[in-house]
């Protein structure tokens, strides 16, 4: 029987059992896509990541228990953290991950992992009546990216206490819906929550890729160059977001929860 190593990393947090967990599996080319999906169904975390050493860089793939997904910010951050933590890559060295959507880079910066993700431009749209009904309140702004709806609500309480109808989300032609507002907490600029049952994740504990849209949107609105963002899920998490020319840098802390081996 063959085994592979795996680790569970909590991201965007300095605490155990907080933030967003990801399982990281170090694999070789012999592991099939079918096996990857079965492992993701078996491991009880939102995203399982498979990375393979390609000598000069690493290939990366992300799976939820339901399907392979095109991008996962917290899974990428967790992967880089593990490679540095295990000494596979020295901390002074930038890591390049090759994905189906192009390369992603990560670097160790001020005791945090910083990854550069794609900027997702937002097109403002008229709020569909079905979306306003789903929200239960009139939004300040609704935008659409190539992946998601981005919805600004009027205050943090609406974000914190929002109770989504996940079955009703099937009618919306998007990966997920991100609800966001300005924060009233000192030291925090914005808050958000992210819902994506289409990916097999009703609510993401902390979503990195949505900040490829949130970062530029809020920096322009708040007249800032960088943001501190807080995810208001039950586990919560903190992201440090800096829009750049063509990408958005997202930084966060990470904590190793366990190491183990899986039979395949």
Write the topology of this structure:
Blueprint: E1 3-11, E2 20-26, H1 33-42, E3 47-53, E4 58-63, E5 68-69, H2 73-85, E6 95-99, E7 102-109, E8 112-118, E9 123-124, H3 129-135, E10 141-144, E11 148-152, H4 156-160, E12 176-182, E13 190-196, E14 201-204, H5 211-222, E15 227-231, E16 237-243, E17 247-252, E18 254-263
Parallel strand pairs: 2-3, 4-6, 11-12, 13-15
Antiparallel strand pairs: 1-2, 1-18, 3-4, 4-5, 6-7, 7-8, 8-17, 9-10, 10-11, 12-13, 13-14, 15-16, 16-17
Fold and architecture overview:
This protein has 264 residues and is an alpha+beta fold. It folds into two domains: 3-114 and 251-263, Diaminopimelate Epimerase, Chain A, domain 1; 123-245, Diaminopimelate Epimerase, Chain A, domain 1 (Roll). 18% of the residues lie in helices and 41% in strands. It has five helices and 18 strands. The protein is globular, with a radius of gyration of 18 Å. The mean pLDDT is 95.
